[in-house]
Amino acid sequence: MLRLLVRLVVVKLAVLAGLAALLVAASRRFDRAVEADRRRLLAAPRPSHPPLVTDEMLAGLPEPARRYLRYAGVVGRPLVDTVRVRQRCRMRPAPNGMSFPVVAEQWYSVEPPGFIWDATVPVGCIPVVRGRDGYVDGHGLMTIKAGSLLPFVNASGPEMDQASLLRHLSEMPWFPSAFLRDRITWEAIDDTTVRVSITDGDLRATGKLEIDAEGRLVAFRAERHAMVGKAFELRPWSAPTYAYGEFEGLRLPTSGAAVWTLPDGTELPYIEVELTDVEYDPPLPA
Questions:
Q1: Per residue in 1-37, pLDDT tens?
Q2: Which pLDDT score is estimated for 261?
Q3: Of 7, 101, 174, 213, which is most buried, counting CB atoms within 10 Å of its CB?
Q4: Are 100 and 7 a contacting pair, CB within 8 Å?
């Protein structure tokens, strides 16, 4: 009996070790796919631009936009071309579903606009879910895999393109000098709200920035395509800001959320994000 128990334990340990090795190998393949996307994102030549933001660059903007950019501290700071951020997140995809932690690293290109978001749901040291979200060469993408191996989301197409460009626009407060590029247009609404748009080829995304009296961004609001099953629906979407902090000499939102307004009018903050690190124009990892 003892020998049988020992054999069962050995077999169980061997199975667990094999499963762990399979997950590690799959995670490395996922890493290589993310790396290829990131290099493609950052391969485009960067257009020339003035080295520093001047106050004159803000002169033609609506007053709430000027107030916001001055609060962020862009004047006298460089115009950036690429950005890397790190995040701690908590996701809750369903209104009454469980929430779980996510750690993520995201790279951005300002010109042309784009990003790659690499997210992991860890259990101990095991990456039980890997997510890859992005906008590269004018196209959006989203891949989510269990154990880096089994895909349960793989989205692309025109709606994903628009949704991803909109996400890029909504996250530009982490690199606010991007709001001064030629592809950005502004429209005044009132003393606290301004409409901002970004174009990339034939694609255009638009949202509203809500800005308080001091110049802090309160929320970004827009209509965005949501995945519902295998289809997309246009729904109200927002990105409220909870707190500000200082990174790289700028005042940036350090915590916030992304929120869907559901058909019954309730709000689902499906991800909460804490910014842990920002690096402008970083060297590409070897």
A1: 555 544 554 445 454 455 555 666 677 788 888 888 8
A2: 96
A3: 174
A4: no
The span from the CA of 231 to the CA of 13, in Å, is 42
pLDDT at 20: 57
What DSSP line would sit under 266-280, residue for residue? -EEEEEEEEEEEEEE
CB < 8 Å & 24+ apart, contacts of 189-198: 191/63, 191/64, 192/64, 192/218, 193/64, 194/62, 194/64, 194/65, 196/65, 196/169, 197/169, 198/113, 198/165, 198/168, 198/169
92: tokens are 């809750």
CA-based Rg of the chain, rounded to a whole angstrom? 21
Q: How confident is the model at residue 94 (pLDDT cuts 50, 70, 90)?
A: confident
Domains in the chain, start-ordered, CATH in brackets? 14-45+54-280 (2.50.20)
- The upper half-sphere exposure of residue 88, i.e. CA atoms within 13 Å in the direction of its Cβ, equals 5
Pair of tokens at residue 281: 């124009």
